[in-house]
Amino acid sequence: MTKSFETMSLPDALSLARIQSGKTIDEIQAEMSWKPGHAQRIFYDDSYWPSLPTIPKLCVVLGNTILLDWLQAQVEFGGLKLEFDALDCLGLLRELNLLVLEMGEVSQEAEKAVEDNEVDKAEARRICKELRDVLNKGIAILNGLEAIK
Q1: For residues 105 and 102, what is the distance between their CA atoms, to the nearest angstrom?
Q2: Which contacts (CB < 8 Å, 24+ apart) does range 5-10 have?
Q3: In this predicted structure, which of 9-23, 26-40, 53-67, 131-145 has the lowest mean pLDDT?
């Protein structure tokens, strides 16, 4: 008996999709044109997932729609929270402080990256990751403020 998609974790959905495909990690990796070790991380590291643009091709390679079904269930059964809690004054100050901390992390990564007057791919990825954290925190604050309206 399998868990329903609405209560299943993403790592479990990935595992189910891979098992149902009958393909090995190496076969999936080759068909996806992923670098060595990438498929291993996707299917065995609970904190590493396929990027959104790769999901359609991954479903084709796996020969099933388990990942799409899982995503649909997450949307329908609460995986996406579309109503947000309003921020009170203390919450707003706390969230703004966290936003400033995130911005400091961007600044630190950028400072390290430009020490040699050149930004390489790995440094750019780290800066982008930190910037995404800033954006996500900013969106969370916006959602909390929009809920007041």
Answers
A1: 5
A2: 5/69, 5/70, 5/72, 5/73, 5/74, 6/73, 6/74, 6/76, 6/77, 6/78, 6/79, 8/70, 8/73, 9/46, 10/49, 10/70
A3: 131-145
**Mean local confidence (pLDDT), 22-31:** 95
Q: What DSSP state is assigned to residue 87?
A: P
**Rounded CA gap, 9 and 71, in Å?**
10
The structure tokens listed for 75 are 């949307």
| Amino acid at residue number 41 | R
- Residue 5 and residue 13 in contact, taking contact as beta carbons nearer than 8 Å: yes
CA distance 120 to 135: 22
**Who's near 140: CB < 8 A, 6+ residues apart?**
95
- DSSP string for residues in 8-21: --HHHHHHHHHHHH
> What global pTM score does this model have?
0.53
The vertex-89 CA angle with 88 and 92, nearest 5°, equals: 85
85 secondary structure, DSSP code: P
Residue with tokens 């079904």: 69
